[in-house]
Specification:
With 116 residues, the protein is mainly beta. The protein has one domain: Jelly Rolls (Sandwich), CATH 2.60.120. It is built from no helices and eleven strands. Strand 2 and strand 3 form a beta hairpin. It is globular and about 45 Å long. The model has no long low-confidence stretch (mean pLDDT 94).
Length: 116
């Protein structure tokens, strides 16, 4: 398990085409991918399971706890991303609720993400 950040503070200001925003790069995917949005209410849980393919979980709202094969949970917040490799056991839970985008693909490139 690796934890990254995609907060505004680590992004790049874009001004091309008279734009005015900050872009935090997430990933580039060349193979087929499944992208979904997960909504966990208070006391929500994504149960302990093995990743079929590499997975990148992007916390966009709220906070929670993640773990891999150990019983040690790591707190994650909005603007942070968690990467699990194929076959890695993992779990996500929240006391207060969280919303996350999940990207699942045989090939997820994390080299441009900023480690936490």
């Amino acid at each position: 398990m690796k934890i990254y950040q995609f907060k505004k503070e680590v992004g790049k200001k874009i001004i091309k085409f008279d734009s005015n925003f900050v872009m935090s790069h997430i990933t580039q995917i060349e193979k087929a991918a499944h992208i979904g949005c997960m909504h966990l209410d208070a006391n929500g849980l994504i149960g302990y399971h093995q990743a079929d393919v590499p997975q990148l979980l992007l916390i966009v709202n709220g906070e929670g706890w993640v773990r891999c094969e150990t019983d040690e949970y790591i707190k994650v917040h909005s603007g942070e991303a968690v990467f699990w490799d194929k076959d890695e056991w993992h779990e996500t839970k929240t006391d207060t609720g969280l919303t996350a985008i999940v990207i699942e693909s045989e090939e997820i490139i994390t080299s441009s993400l900023i480690p936490l």
